[in-house]
């Protein structure tokens, strides 16, 4: 605040006069000849000084600044303006005494090591002095100035102070934000709105600029304070745009040699909404552009491939659907055939069982036939022997008949001779002739009978010979029948085994047919499910095709948006 008191009259050759609460002024009365006049003048000047001091005190009390003064001799507080008292009342819970009781107290009560403050304040050469101290959670900013009288004598220290807790917090936040701004991985630069000179550039920007320094008109470390015009071929365009905050924000991509830079300019406004200047955030996006171009090419190729695959998939799904439909029809046909085959196999199985029973019966009858045939052979052999005996007897009878026939012939001859002799005898011989005639008739009848018997015997012999031949043939036939019956019995036995094997196989076939029927049913169900799945595949293919088309549109839109960034 400079020398104190402020605004007091400059009274030279003065002697100290105590006024009010320890304040001193100086005045000179050497110009007055008489004491009364001097006292009158002094009284008038004193009144004026008191008025000025009162005005000064009023001014200090009304100042929105906390002011304190202390006595140099014992460092007791000699003055507290109203602002100080009001402010101290807010801090009373942190003070050793009440705010209204501080006047006249030593400043030592505020310090843990008063000797340090006493040495500091005792010598005006240490002043002005500024310090920040902590009072509980609060932070106070202290500004100590030296108060001198008109002769330059050090009268004591004056303290102006304020609670800067909020300011310190804001300052800390500001510093943190500045550190964040300096260290964040984003290139940031600001410029004055009128001169467009760069007034801030963060460390990240400087480091990034060093990477492209060979493409710049200046070194990266020299960018601060440089006008942005040096970066543009037509600075007037940029000046017009940046002069009006309504043109902002603005984005642009510029080429710097082989590099591509992405610039985003925003308007910085103060608390009143006034435009302070432009801020640009920027980055080197050369690799990003290359990646985007590559991405665009690859994604478009992939999208086209997906679209083609979707079309192929949809076509394949349609073919699969047709195949599935055909398979369903065929599986239904197979199922019907399988059911029919199963029924047929069951019928065959039943018939096979009946055949097995029939074969068993045939075997039994064949065995019985063989036994009967064997008995017939034996009986035929016996009959053959009998018939042969009959043939021999008939031959013997034939011999006897021949003999009788011969006798009848001799008798007939004898009767003839007797007749002849009776005729010779005449009457005497008539009776003998009659007998001879009768004998002749008997002989003729006997001969005739024997001839008939001979014919019958011949017939019997022929029949007997035929019977013997027939019986022999029958015997041979029965023997053959016996052999055939044995063969039939053996064949029937083998056939029985075969029929049993067939029956077993037929049963297995029946089981297999049932399993085939079940499998065909499962196939039919699976085919139906496959049909549903193929339908889903077809729907998925259609959806995929739609999604591919949508993705193509979205990728185009995305790339357009990315290129705008």
Automatic annotation (TrEMBL):
It comes from the Bacteria. SUPFAM superfamilies: Methyl-accepting chemotaxis protein (MCP) signaling domain. InterPro entries: Chemotax_Me-accpt_rcpt, MCPsignal_dom, T_SNARE_dom. Its main location: membrane. One of its GO terms (molecular function) is transmembrane signaling receptor activity. Residues 309-545 form the Methyl-accepting transducer domain. It is found in: Cell inner membrane. Keywords: Cell inner membrane, Cell membrane, Membrane, Transducer. GO terms for cellular component: plasma membrane. GO terms for biological process: chemotaxis; signal transduction. It is a multi-pass membrane protein. Residues 461-523 form the T-SNARE coiled-coil homology domain. Belongs to the methyl-accepting chemotaxis (MCP) protein family. This is Chemotaxis protein. It comes from Zavarzinia aquatilis. The lineage of its organism: Bacteria, Pseudomonadati, Pseudomonadota, Alphaproteobacteria, Rhodospirillales.
